[in-house]
Write a structure and sequence with these properties.
Layout lengths: L6 E5 L4 H12 L3 E6 L2 H12 L8 E5 L5 H15 L4 E4 L15 H29 L2 E6 L12 H21 L4 E7 L6 H9 L1 H4 L1 H13 L4 H12 L10 E3 L12 H6 L23
Parallel strand pairs: 1-2, 1-4, 2-3, 4-5, 5-6, 6-7
Helix pairs in contact: 1-9, 3-4, 4-5
Length: about 290
């Protein structure tokens, strides 16, 4: 078992990918502290997971809004009391936010999406980093997505916040490398979860004809299996990935199962990172002041 004896906090774990990550972590021997905003759904999901757990495994669950500093602090304290220590943090909680032209969408909803996606990643990290440092190790896995790597017209809050999550991941990875804390981001692929249902409900006028058409095709095809992203999270939470840090890894497109053999090359390059493209990168030689 890849996570035997390890303790993990997973946010946004009452449904969808977060719940699948919890299942996979449980199967790999981890003890779990699970959090989500909806207490009823979280309690129900935890009950289902307990049926899968061994008698030796602990599963703690609680309602938690990851965008609220006090709720995150309370949740982490309770998780620490239940588990004794924590070695893994998975920041999965996230929302699409408002859909439509950026100048017309509700500004408060736009800000709320940023608070959930970005602050909801930052706050659990801040709460657990001192504990990880005291242990001399730790694993942080942040869920990102397509919004981080390409423009998403009409879904700007999601795109901006997820790109920010990746740069936060890269920054924390450098800050925490000396403490042996690995920090990575995961792009799980196009999943058939509640977020897809939101796009279909919003319709082509609010998300764009092209994006809506892709969503319909994804719904019909089944999308990327949840298990693929969950398995990547297991890899990044386990000792197999020690030393791999500051990367955005695609569950579907990247050969992550072999990355442990490439950790030295990864350490020395900007592969799997967000970077500015210069004219030279595209074979152009522009001089200063040249149009």
């Amino acid at each position: 078992m890849k996570l035997a004896g390890l303790n993990a906090i997973i946010t946004g774990s009452s449904q969808g990918l977060g719940l699948e990550i919890a299942r996979r972590f449980l199967a790999e021997g981890a003890n779990l502290a699970l959090g989500a905003r909806d207490e009823f759904k979280m309690t129900k999901a935890a009950g289902e997971l307990r049926l899968l757990a061994s008698p030796r495994q602990t599963i703690f669950s609680s309602a938690c809004d990851v965008s609220k500093t006090d709720e995150v602090a309370r949740f982490v304290r309770a998780a620490m009391e239940a588990l004794g220590s924590v070695q893994i943090l998975v920041n999965n909680a996230g929302v699409y936010g408002p859909k439509g032209p950026t100048e017309r969408v509700d500004l408060d909803e736009w800000k709320e999406a940023l608070e959930i996606n970005l602050y909801g990643t930052l706050l659990p990290c801040r709460a657990l980093i001192p504990h990880f440092k005291s242990q001399g190790r730790g694993k942080i896995v942040n869920l990102s997505g397509g919004g981080a790597t390409q423009p998403l017209p009409l879904i700007s809050a999601y795109a901006a916040s997820k790109a920010a999550v990746v740069r936060l991941t890269e920054t924390l990875a450098e800050e925490l490398a000396a403490a042996h804390i690995d920090v990575n981001a995961v792009a799980p692929g196009a999943l058939n979860t509640r977020l897809l249902d939101e796009v279909l409900e919003a319709g082509p006028k609010n998300v764009g004809e092209g994006f809506y058409k892709k969503a319909v095709e994804q719904k019909e095809s089944g999308g990327v299996p949840l298990s693929l992203g969950a398995d990547l999270c297991v890899f990044l939470a386990s000792g197999q990935s020690d030393g791999i840090t500051g990367k955005l890894i695609s569950a579907r497109w990247d050969p992550w199962r072999d990355l442990e053999t490439k950790r030295e090359k990864l350490r020395k390059t900007d592969i799997y990172t967000l970077r500015r493209i210069t004219p030279e990168d595209r074979g152009e030689k522009w001089q200063s002041g040249e149009l």
